[in-house]
Amino acid sequence: MKRVRGVLFVLIGALLLSGCTLISTSNSPSVVPKGNVSFGLEKPTIPGTANGRVRFTTQPVYFIDATGHLSPSSRLVTTPLTLSSVIDEVLLGPTKIEGFAGYTSDVPKGFVLVSATLQGKLGIVDVATPLTSLPRQNQILALGQLVLTAYDAGVTAGIEITVAGTPTLSLLPNGTKKLIATRADFLSLLNG
Prior knowledge:
The protein is 28% helix and 24% strand. It is an alpha+beta fold. The strands form three sheets. Strands 3, 4, 5, 6 and 9 form a five-stranded mixed β-sheet that branches.
């Protein structure tokens, strides 16, 4: 009986306290005075840094559209652009909205980018596993996604795919294999 009374007392207390809140409700938004905004959130720089700023730019990233061709899609990336940051956007794949519009990616899930560096205007993309594990058409489209995305990020001399630092030959749409894949090799895959 004591146990039942204790549980009943706790339940009644919980019901009474559930009607209380620390923040009063309002039917319309209220303006917070600048003096009450803490942590430097009103400043144009990142709090706790020496004038650190983050700037973004819109960057084209290529996916496969509903017709099976490569098409650009816009993504926000931090500036200055790096080859690694734009390839990371390809690895993320299409967003839900892009997926509903028919966009897909042939870059496999779990594809690991080890590094992406520039040597002049040539991109060196080091990956953990080669694209050769994919079927022929998927391999070509996946490489096209990487090459065209890199080109629009300023890698105009093409990209060289390496696996654990070892250069590999890339399969091109015309059936040949080259060490350096360029935008010109994949123009036939573009939509329009």
